[in-house]
Amino acid sequence: MRARRKKHGAQRLDACREKGIVIDSKNELPVGFLPAEIEIGCGKGDFIIEMAKRHPERNYIAFEKKDDIALEAAERLDREGLTNVRVMVADAGELETLFAPGDLINLYTNFPDPWAKTRYIKRRLTNRSFLEIYKRLLPVGGCVFFKTDNRILFDYSLSEFRACGYRLENVTNDLHASDFAAENIVTEYETLFSQKGFKINRLEAYIDEKTLETYPPMKWTYTEDEAADKTPEDEADGNNKDNDG
């Protein structure tokens, strides 16, 4: 279901810009705000707001490409009076345009679009083209934290992280029954998926010196489920194209 446009959304978003909650460039950040942690696809802000409350000593960037949804997060931040979060309305593909190495510490992506159709695999936030961007921006010791209810996406992501040389830790296919549940921040989507009976998958992918070495490209091979999900358009669109990042 498509979200309704917010009444006076553009004006309200501009009001958040005037307050410095929404920014268009890192140059608008307060002195000393960077390096910060970033969430790609912050949604309504459930996760980033709770993180900011738990860790007032850290700074956060909430990245959201849909302006109406970014507005909800920004207005919630305003009501909460949190000063260690800024919202950016931008697409993940703009990360390297907006930030430089050293600007970011850790990256979070919670329940991103799985882009189930084969021809859209490169749009996945855990496709190696994005993982290489994260490697260039995050420092040695930096981490990508990833959660999803989609097991096909999760298994795909494990393969992509390994192909790009990330060190995987704390991997689970049932977060809520794991040792990590106590510290987990449950988002709106997470609650919805859990109530429907889906198990939540989680991993931490760290960058170390070995990660920064050059890894040979790996050709994508379909899992049985992904092959079944192909459409006639997929077959016509290059007949099983490689998805090297």
Description:
The chain is of the alpha/beta class and 245 residues long. The chain has a single domain, classed as 3-Layer(aba) Sandwich (Rossmann fold). It is built from nine helices and eight strands. The chain has helices at 9-18, 46-54, 67-80, 95-98, 128-137, 151-163, 188-195, 224-228, 232-236, and strands spanning 22-23, 36-40, 60-64, 85-89, 104-110, 143-148, 167-172, 201-206. An eight-stranded mixed β-sheet has the order 1-4-3-2-5-6-8-7, sandwiched between helices. Helix 1 packs across helix 3. 35% of the residues are buried. The model is unreliable at 216-224 and 226-245 (pLDDT under 50).
Question: What is the secondary structure topology, with strand pairs?
Answer:
Layout: H1 9-18, E1 22-23, E2 36-40, H2 46-54, E3 60-64, H3 67-80, E4 85-89, H4 95-98, E5 104-110, H5 128-137, E6 143-148, H6 151-163, E7 167-172, H7 188-195, E8 201-206, H8 224-228, H9 232-236
Parallel strand pairs: 1-4, 2-3, 2-5, 3-4, 5-6
Antiparallel strand pairs: 6-8, 7-8
